[in-house]
């Protein structure tokens, strides 16, 4: 591996895999490196559109994970369905590759915990795509909370309201099957906000929730198939420090989607507009609050007006830039999301799903 390039394999070339490839190109264009060389894509079907599209971006495309054994790789990006994450992760352990993994890291908590335990036996570079940690407002909120000027956190309110599954004509996919995904809106979206609560407000100690599945079946390969994951959830969380708050997540919020987090402290309120690429808004009654000084670094400010794209693409690009820097042995000024962080957030998600199921009985 040269100082300017990292050779990657990608496991899974669906929507999120394509997002990672595009994000790596944006990061390179904006800050000059390191270069991501997309060596091999592992797809599920060599006759699929994904395989055809991958052939334009990768030197090699295969449907066999074993074909990676002989490739000269530095890292693997795991962007396949959640129940397929373990095998490429295990191969990376064997080969000594760095691992960049989508969230949740597995379809079930037991396997996620096993991945964490295995990773801790090796001094490997690993990172999870909990990309909101790299949002400018999150970085700024961290500085405000660490300054102590706002006092302790009292309450919080998080929303990730998306609309991809409101249309009942949208066909069945692995994201709507618990066996493959591990959960619906809670596991897909809620894990992001729960991770931010852990980062900014403290560890969750108690969970209550209500969940709903509004569209119970969809057209699949074998006709109408049952949807066994949640479309929507409202979750109440209590932290170990005494803060209490709510999260609403939805995949049936069609139209104007909303991603936000509001944190109420003793001396002010922080609003984080997660759906816009901008800083935090502070409202305070205290006239003597001193402005904070943000840490400057090579990644957080890479997106000038000419390079900045959608918020989500910017976040993926920043996260991948941080990962690549770490692969090259550099230190980055972020609270990098690890497998262990993702596992802790997944445990809260599973507790919320269990609580929601209990309420509906």
UniProtKB/TrEMBL annotation:
Query: Where on the tree of life does the source sit, at the highest rank?
Result: Bacteria
Q: Where is the Gfo/Idh/MocA-like oxidoreductase N-terminal domain?
A: 6-128
Q: Which InterPro entries match?
A: Gfo/Idh/MocA-like_OxRdtase_N, Gfo/Idh/MocA_oxidrdct_glycsds, GFO_IDH_MocA-like_dom, NAD(P)-bd_dom_sf
UniProt keywords, alphabetically = Oxidoreductase
Q: Which residues form the signal peptide?
A: none
Residue ranges of domain GFO/IDH/MocA-like oxidoreductase in the record: 139-270
Return the protein name. Answer: Gfo/Idh/MocA family protein
């Amino acid at each position: 591996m040269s100082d300017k390039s990292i050779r990657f394999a990608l496991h899974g070339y669906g929507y999120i895999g394509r997002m990672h490839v595009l994000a790596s190109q944006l990061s390179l264009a904006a800050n000059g490196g390191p270069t991501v060389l997309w060596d091999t894509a592992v797809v599920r079907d060599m006759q699929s559109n994904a395989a055809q599209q991958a052939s334009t971006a990768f030197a090699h495309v295969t449907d066999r994970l074993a074909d990676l054994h002989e490739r000269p790789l530095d890292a693997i990006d795991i962007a396949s369905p959640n129940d397929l994450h373990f095998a490429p992760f295990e191969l990376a352990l064997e080969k000594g590759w760095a691992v960049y993994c989508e969230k949740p890291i597995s379809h079930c908590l037991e396997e996620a915990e096993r991945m964490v335990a295995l990773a801790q036996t090796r001094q490997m570079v690993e990172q999870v795509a909990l990309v909101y940690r790299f949002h400018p407002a999150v970085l700024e909120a961290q500085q405000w909370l660490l300054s102590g000027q706002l006092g302790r956190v009292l309450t919080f309110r998080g929303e990730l309201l998306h609309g991809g599954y409101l249309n009942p004509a949208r066909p069945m996919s692995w994201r709507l099957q618990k066996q493959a995904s591990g959960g619906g809106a809670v596991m897909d979206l809620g894990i992001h906000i729960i991770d931010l609560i852990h980062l900014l407000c403290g560890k969750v100690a108690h969970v209550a929730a209500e969940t709903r599945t509004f569209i119970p079946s969809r057209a699949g390969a074998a006709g109408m198939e049952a949807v066994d994951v949640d479309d929507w959830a409202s979750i109440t969380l209590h932290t170990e420090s005494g803060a209490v708050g709510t999260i609403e997540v939805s995949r049936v919020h069609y139209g104007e989607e909303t991603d936000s987090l509001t944190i109420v402290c003793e001396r002010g309120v922080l609003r984080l507009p997660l759906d816009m690429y901008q800083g935090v808004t502070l409202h305070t009654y205290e006239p003597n609050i001193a402005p904070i000084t943000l840490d400057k670094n090579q990644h957080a400010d890479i997106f000038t007006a000419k390079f900045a794209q959608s918020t989500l693409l910017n976040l993926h690009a920043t996260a991948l830039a941080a990962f690549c820097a770490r692969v090259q042995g550099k230190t980055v000024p972020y609270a990098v999301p690890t497998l262990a962080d993702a596992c802790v957030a997944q445990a809260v998600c599973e507790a919320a799903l269990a609580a929601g199921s209990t309420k509906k009985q």
